[in-house]
Inverse folding.
């Protein structure tokens, strides 16, 4: 059974870079799309972007200039970097898997990690 | 503001049937893109409940069903149980925005 676990600092200073890692266990990271999704407290879910196991990426246009998602197949993990963060980036960040893109579904998800941006 | 519109809350007594609506536009649900549903208990991993409009993953009870028509979709939960109390989200794809989009979530309260 595939399991995903997010890890990284829970507090990031404004203007700095948010960095999170998602460790995948129970299956190889190859042949799938690995996605980051976030949810600001009290708000809806926002798709951030994905990385394919071969390194190909696609990002939400609203975040594209600040986002980098990368994959490390040797460690079976993938990562998110979000630069120049502000209070608006405070959110629960989730990693998830999908086997295709566009309108494909996400399964499974990690339990999420709260990242707070401090001023 | 979410691209897909869901009611903020629904409620029902144990044993009853409730539905959760998900309304989109001609750029997403109405364009023919599939709709998926998730169940989320705060502090836990969101769980895939329905995929590709009507399909249940293995292990999801048949009390959960969903449909799609035009620019909307709907999740139905029959024989409501206390354990169903959670937040429910719909998801699709928007071709104008070129992103996966979600509903704002619906909190189900079992009375």
């Amino acid at each position: 059974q595939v399991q995903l676990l997010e890890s990284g600092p829970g507090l990031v200073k404004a203007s700095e870079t948010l960095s999170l890692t998602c460790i995948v266990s129970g299956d190889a990271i190859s042949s799938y799309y690995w996605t980051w999704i976030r949810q600001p407290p009290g708000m809806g879910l926002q798709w951030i972007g994905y990385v394919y196991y071969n390194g190909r990426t696609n990002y939400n246009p609203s975040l594209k200039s600040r986002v980098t998602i990368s994959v490390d197949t040797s460690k079976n993990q993938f990562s998110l970097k979000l630069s120049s963060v502000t209070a608006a980036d405070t959110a629960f960040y989730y990693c998830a898997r999908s086997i295709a893109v566009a309108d494909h579904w996400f399964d499974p998800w990690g339990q999420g990690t709260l990242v707070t941006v401090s001023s | 503001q979410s691209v897909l519109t869901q009611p903020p809350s629904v409620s029902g007594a144990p044993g009853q049937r409730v539905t959760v609506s998900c309304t989109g536009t001609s750029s997403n649900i109405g364009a023919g893109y599939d709709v998926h549903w998730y169940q989320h208990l705060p502090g836990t991993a969101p769980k895939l409940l329905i995929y590709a409009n009507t399909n249940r993953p293995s292990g999801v009870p048949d009390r959960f069903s969903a449909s799609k028509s035009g620019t909307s979709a709907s999740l139905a939960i029959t024989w409501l149980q206390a354990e169903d109390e959670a937040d429910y989200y719909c998801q699709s794809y928007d071709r104008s925005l070129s992103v996966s989009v979600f509903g704002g979530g619906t909190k189900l309260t079992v009375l």
Summary: The interface with chain B takes residues 4, 43-47, 60-61, 94, 96, 102-112 of chain A (CB under 8 Å). Chain A is about 0% helix and 50% strand. The two ends of chain A are 40 Å apart (CA to CA). Residues 29 and 76 of chain A are 5 Å apart (CA to CA).
